[in-house]
């Protein structure tokens, strides 16, 4: 139960901090934090929660990471479903809190605003195609898994994994916010899509399928090509 609660809490903070920065602070008049600020917010949330509860659950906070670690031989398949349920619960709870806060501003329209949802084609921040979104989500999630597995390898320097992982997520967002608003995390995508309620739900399939494909690919690459044989 402690592991599942840690995953719920970690995902809650990730979505509240990352998506909250996008909804509430990114375009704030004259003082908005912009894409760079949102990217940093996502990276910081993973970093702080990995230090806070990573020693309890492993600090996945992401269904794609859980499945990628299974593919990489680092996590048992038997625990995947409860981990994913906990992650989805945390993401949905964070989106609910964010919705309540954002609704406190006169004129807020969750459908029109997009509510930090992920999208492609006409719902991509930069108008990027479905194919472009699929490629960026697969490649960057694979890179993310390789960083996670490398940073947490028993041969890696101890205690620094959350820093590397948080910075990797920041870099991923800096690259891909204009393309898909950056998912690489099906729970993050699902939480806000449930409240956006229209196009975000119809495009949600891509932000489950592509991050999972990328994560499994990254896990397999690290396990078979990069991990030391004695590990």
Automatic annotation (TrEMBL):
The Gene Ontology CC terms held by the record are: plasma membrane
Superkingdom of this protein's organism: Bacteria
**At which positions is motif NPA 2?**
185-187
Q: Which residues cross the membrane?
A: 35-53, 80-102, 128-148, 160-179, 199-222
Q: What is the membrane topology here? A: Multi-pass membrane protein
The feature of type site (Selectivity filter) is located at: 42, 173, 182, 188
Q: Can you say where in the cell this protein is located?
A: Cell membrane
Its UniProt domain note says: Aquaporins contain two tandem repeats each containing three membrane-spanning domains and a pore-forming loop with the signature motif Asn-Pro-Ala (NPA).
Q: What does this protein do?
A: Channel that permits osmotically driven movement of water in both directions. It is involved in the osmoregulation and in the maintenance of cell turgor during volume expansion in rapidly growing cells. It mediates rapid entry or exit of water in response to abrupt changes in osmolarity.
Give the location of motif NPA 1 in residue numbers. Answer: 62-64
Report the catalytic activity. H2O(in) = H2O(out)
For this entry, the protein name equals Aquaporin Z
Assembly and partners are described as:
Homotetramer.
Any matching Pfam family = MIP
Q: Which GO terms describe its molecular function?
A: water channel activity
Gene3D superfamilies referenced in this protein's UniProt entry, alphabetically:
Glycerol uptake facilitator protein (1.20.1080.10)
Q: What is its main location?
A: membrane
Identify the keywords attached in UniProt to this record, alphabetized.
Cell inner membrane, Cell membrane, Membrane, Repeat, Transmembrane, Transmembrane helix, Transport
């Amino acid at each position: 139960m402690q592991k599942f609660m840690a995953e719920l809490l970690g995902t809650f903070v990730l979505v509240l901090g990352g998506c909250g920065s996008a909804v509430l602070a990114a375009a704030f008049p004259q003082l908005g934090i912009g894409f760079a600020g949102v990217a940093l917010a996502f990276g910081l949330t993973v970093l702080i929660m990995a230090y806070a509860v990573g020693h309890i659950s492993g600090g996945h906070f992401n269904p794609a990471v859980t499945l990628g670690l299974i593919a990489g031989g680092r996590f048992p398949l038997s625990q995947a479903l409860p981990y994913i349920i906990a992650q989805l619960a945390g993401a949905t709870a964070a989106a609910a809190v964010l919705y309540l806060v954002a609704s406190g501003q006169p004129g807020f329209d969750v459908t029109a605003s997009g509510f930090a949802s992920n999208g492609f084609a006409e719902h991509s921040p930069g108008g990027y195609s479905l194919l472009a979104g699929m490629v960026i989500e697969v490649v960057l999630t694979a890179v993310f898994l390789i960083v996670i597995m490398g940073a947490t390898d028993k041969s890696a320097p101890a205690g620094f994994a959350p820093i590397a992982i948080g910075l990797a997520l920041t870099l991923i967002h800096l690259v891909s916010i204009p393309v898909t608003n950056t998912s690489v995390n099906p729970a993050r995508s699902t939480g806000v899509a449930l409240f956006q309620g229209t196009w975000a739900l119809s495009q949600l399939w891509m932000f489950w399928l592509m991050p999972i494909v990328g994560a499994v690919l990254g896990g397999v690459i690290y396990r078979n090509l990069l991990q030391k044989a004695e590990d």
